[in-house]
Predict the structure.
Amino acid sequence: VLSNMNEPLGFAIGNSLEIKEVVEILSGKDVNDLTEITIALAKEAINLVEGGVSQDINMELKELLLGGAALKKFEEMILSQGGSVDFHKLKKANHIEYLKSESPGYIEKVDANIIGEIVHELGAGRKNVSDFIDHSVGIVLHKKHGDFVNKGETLLEIHGKDEEAILNVKRRATSSIILGQNPPSKLKLIEEIIG
């Protein structure tokens, strides 16, 4: 499944933030792009196992995803590996800053590459095998492609270990979001299914 990776999927980018969002979705919150790609991948997995899947399975898969069955299975998998399903204990960043829009407009682009580099710089990834990963840091988008934003409205949250870490990435975070005056055309999430 070749998907459009120009914009981050969902709203959360960063270890604990992404797990929190996954649990929210598995608890019934419909996040359009993540729901769509998850259903598409599930259909492909079923197709590989059963050799064919009807197109009308989407609603059944959506109910499994958002209705609690997938959350129960996710928790079973975690527990079978000795993990904790107390998701309220996920690490939280020491400092959060809200990046606000300096002008009104429609979001034309959220640059996934820049966002990924920022989250890595905040400490969510490694440069060397021995590097410490900070599971609490990352970015939470408040607006995505096609959304209208007013001047002063929050575009995203930066979760960092301290104020200095956030200050070091704030300018690039601002450059990751491009605004325009007209509604952009809808992004195509799935480019092609090869198989």
